[in-house]
Structures are given as structure tokens and as C-alpha cells.
Specification:
CATH topology: Butyryl-CoA Dehydrogenase, subunit A, domain 3
Number of strands: 5
Number of domains: 1
Strand order of the largest sheet: 4-3-2-1-5
Largest sheet: 5 strands, antiparallel
Length: about 150
């Protein structure tokens, strides 16, 4: 549940602000945009990955009767979260190297917002949840053996 809440924050809040030459470029889940509307690019892959990484842990909670599936879905969530981090890094790198605009952007102009840390925390919490589910499964199997 915590991973779902963290990913909702990541999905709804801006991830990176870049202030250069009087312009403010914002990277959010579904777009790279300028405040004046001069620059606007869709980042649909990032948005789609964030939606999936938000919904998957929520769905996994309700599969408590099928713990092996829960464990596999936690593994898929970890891979998707790492993919989200890679895509966020790629977009930030692309913005900094002037791929989307002709501004003189340097790494010192980039301001990372706190939601960019949420996938990192989620990557840490998801394996912990997977380990707890595995312990539950082993406990249930040991109790079945006693009967």
C-alpha cells in the first residue's frame, strides 16, 4: 500500500524543474513543458510506466490467497520501477543535452523535486514486501506439513 501511495505522488507531482534564460521547463509524468507553452513534448512512456507501477502493487494486495503470484508480481514491480528510474534519467539527460530545446542548459540549472525519490524508495520497499510474502508462504507450508 505504501508503494502505491508513493507512486501516486510521483504520478501527480512534477519531477524536475529546469530554469534557464527566463524559461522554466518542467518534466512531469506525461509531458515535458515550458511555462509559456513554447516547448511541449509528450513523455507517454514515462506516464504509462508510472501508471502501471502505481496500479500493480494495489492489485497485488488483493491477491493474498495466491502468494506465489504475489511474489512474482513484486518481482515484476521491481523491474518496472528500475525501468521508470532509467526513463526518468534518460529524459533528464535529454533535456540537459538540449535535445528538446535550444536553451543553454547545464546540470546546475536542474532542480530535482522530491517525487523523483519515490521510485527509489519503492525499489527498496518492494523486495521487503516480497520477502515478507515469501516468509508467509513458507509458514503456511510448514503448518500444512504438520497437519
Amino acid at each position: 500500500m505504501v508503494v502505491t501511495l508513493l507512486m501516486v505522488v510521483t504520478l501527480l507531482c512534477p519531477l524536475v524543474y529546469i530554469g534557464v534564460d527566463g524559461h522554466q521547463i518542467t518534466l512531469s509524468a506525461f509531458s515535458i513543458s515550458d511555462a509559456e507553452g513554447v516547448l511541449s513534448h509528450a513523455s507517454a512512456w514515462l506516464g504509462a510506466m508510472l501508471v502501471v507501477t502505481t496500479l500493480l502493487p494495489f492489485v497485488t494486495i488483493f491477491l493474498y490467497k495466491n502468494r506465489p503470484l504475489q511474489i512474482r508480481l513484486c518481482g515484476v514491480e521491481c523491474v518496472l520501477l528500475i525501468g521508470v528510474l532509467v526513463v526518468m534519467g534518460a529524459f533528464t539527460y535529454a533535456i540537459c543535452n538540449n535535445i528538446f530545446a535550444d536553451f543553454d542548459i547545464t546540470w546546475s540549472n536542474i532542480v530535482f523535486r522530491f517525487p523523483i525519490l519515490m521510485p527509489i524508495v519503492s525499489v527498496i520497499l518492494t523486495p521487503l514486501a516480497m520477502r515478507a510474502i515469501l516468509r508467509d508462504e513458507l509458514l503456511v507450508r510448514s503448518l500444512d506439513r504438520i497437519r
